[in-house]
Design a protein that fits this description.
With about 120 residues, this protein is mainly alpha-helical. The chain has one domain. Helix content is about 70%, strand content about 5%. The protein has a two-stranded antiparallel sheet. The protein is elongated, with a radius of gyration of 24 Å.
């Protein structure tokens, strides 16, 4: 798991490192708006806002993918009822499938029992 995290961190660092030359070139460029030269400092907030928003979406996507992988591993390695069905729901439902699996199966398992309850109570 540590190796995977290191590889993801490297990919993210390289991706953001590739943006640096573009931003430096944009800072030295002459900016035009409607055919007139304008100070480039006036559009800096726009560039920062777009990249900042993209960073937030990237973080949400990364966390969602990590959660999806964790739920997929949990479903594959634990003895749960309807395992093939849950694996298909998680794989094809991606984040939504993982969230449904978490609240319907995993949360019930972590509350004490090793297998989730089927919803029907048995009386003896």
């Amino acid at each position: 798991m540590k190796n995977i995290i290191q590889k993801l961190a490297f990919i993210i660092a390289v991706s953001f490192g590739a943006l640096v030359p573009v931003l430096v070139q944009a800072a030295a460029a002459v900016c035009k708006s409607n055919g007139q030269v304008v100070p480039c400092g006036n559009i800096g907030w726009l560039i920062g806002g777009v990249f900042g928003l993209g960073g937030i979406f990237l973080l949400i996507a990364l966390l969602g993918t990590i959660f999806w992988i964790m739920m997929l591993i949990h479903a594959a390695t634990h003895d749960i009822p309807n395992k093939p069905l849950w694996l298909l729901i998680i794989i094809f439902g991606h984040l939504l499938g993982a969230i449904v699996y978490y609240f319907s199966v995993k949360k019930n398992m972590s509350s004490g029992s090793k297998t989730p309850s089927s919803g029907a109570s048995s009386t003896t």
